[in-house]
Each structure stands twice: as structure tokens, then as C-alpha cells.
Amino acid sequence: MKFLVVDDSPTMRRIVINALKTFGYTDVLEAGDGQQALEQLNAYDDIEFVITDWNMPVMTGLELTQSIRGNEKFKHLPILMVTTRGLKSDIIEALKARVNNYVVKPFTPPVLKEKLDSVLASIKK
């Protein structure tokens, strides 16, 4: 399974990618903002899962989610939002944009795995 990890922080991208590798997911691309993520999605036909931050320059994770959901080619991609925005209103806004799940930073690898597994289980139904 190919993942796309989107975060403007190289350190946070590395943390997520390293966690994915410990879960057995080694096919990972990365992007520094939503615009770069869309470019990656258009360049690679085999991206199967997007993990994105919310707060990024150029294009936010919420805008990225809306772009993905509005594109016939990508609209069914699972999206996990990983962000510092933990207010209930933020979570509701992300869910309305149709992210599949939501993780608040800081997080532990077991929490990330639980959310990933939850999303993967829900899309296999």
C-alpha cells in the first residue's frame, strides 16, 4: 500500500513515515503542503492513502481534503488528518470535509496505528 504523508514539518513527516515503517508500510511519498500533495497524486496513479496535517502554507490539509473529495479520480482515497487542532469544532469541520479519521498531535505510534487500522477496516467493508 502506497502512502502520501503531507506536512510542512520535515520532522513530523519523518515521525509519521518511521511509524508507518514499523507497521510494515514502506512505500511512502511525502509532500510539504497540499499543493505539492496534489502534484504527487497527479504524478503517481498508485497512492492509496493520504495522511495530512491541517496547518500548512500554500494549501492547508482541509483545502487538500476538499480538493481530493471534489475530484472523481481521487474522491475515494482514505484520508487521515494528523494535526494540533484538537477543538471539537475543528474535528467537526474536518469530518464535514470527509476525512476518514482524525489524530491530534502529539500522538504515539500505537494511536496512529489504531486510527490507520480503523480507516482500513472501514474501507474494506
Word description of this protein:
This protein is an alpha/beta fold. It has one domain (about 1-125): Response regulator (Rossmann fold), CATH 3.40.50. It has helices at about 10-20, 35-45, 60-70, 90-95, 110-125, and strands spanning about 1-5, 25-30, 45-50, 80-85, 100-105. β1, α1 and β2 (about 25-30) form a beta-alpha-beta unit. α2 (about 35-45) packs parallel to α3.
Q: What is shown here, in short?
A:
By secondary structure, this protein is of the alpha/beta class.
Please give the largest β-sheet. Answer: 5 strands, parallel
Total count of domains: 1
Low-confidence stretches: none
Helical content, roughly?
Answer: 40-55%
CATH architecture: 3-Layer(aba) Sandwich
> Over all CA atoms, what is the radius of gyration?
13 Å
Got a strand count?
A: 5
